[in-house]
# Entry
Amino acid sequence: MRSRLGLWLLLTPVLLWLVLLIVLPHIDLLFMSFRGENDLGEPAWTLANYANFFSEPVYWLTFARTALYAVITTAITAMLAMPVAFYITKLARQRARGALLVLLLLPFWVSELVRVYGWMTLLRESGVLNHFMLALGLVHKPVEMLYNDASMIMGLVYTSMLFMVVPLVSVMDSLDDSLIEAAHDLGAHKRAIWRTIIIPHCKPGLVSGSIIVFMLTLGNYLTPNLMGGKNSLWFTEQIYNQFIASFNWNQGAAFGFLLLLLSSLMIWLGLKLTRQKLGEVAS
# Structure
């Protein structure tokens, strides 16, 4: 009895946090997304907020663009994180592992806004890179390296790299080194070792990291807006404009739930393609 009471006392703050700050606001926004006005200007239930999404090409094109670039960012992050995690767990000395993980954590000790502005200072026309290229004679005039899709994706990869490396380090650390050594002794090529041993073993961490990175990228606002510029066309900006600029909370709520539906659908599809279960990935 006492143990059960103690368990409920421990769970009560978590449950209150989930219900009051996540469940109830989302339920309120869900009802709000189906609210509108009839021909007399009176409040009424309607599907018009969702119909507007499909009737305006800028909305669904931005929605598709956001999903595509979120998938690209996730794929690039995974490709870069795999060798980083392998080096930390299998090649680096035991004493150096902690230092390398701290180096990965170090940029995240400041806010995302500061990190993005750091990249902008580095890449802008009057920034550090252009200054050195002009001084070395590599270019004759400053090169605009900001406000394009490439710089936006680079910023998104940078801001989400840690969330891919940490799950991969966790699962890769449990990989038996003798398997890799045996495959190498039998003459297996490095690509074959990665394809048949390392990547299959790391699949739970890879899927877990991909889910986190995809959802963070899909819901990101600062990086696409600042590094992508006005032409970034990120769907979170459409949601922001509906809530803040237009004060159309009903339309913004509908857009928010469409984004939630997209992320849930993509996660379900990813789990099906990789034959993973959500419980296994989350653990």
User: Anything to note?
Assistant: The mean pLDDT is 87. The two ends are 29 Å apart (CA to CA).
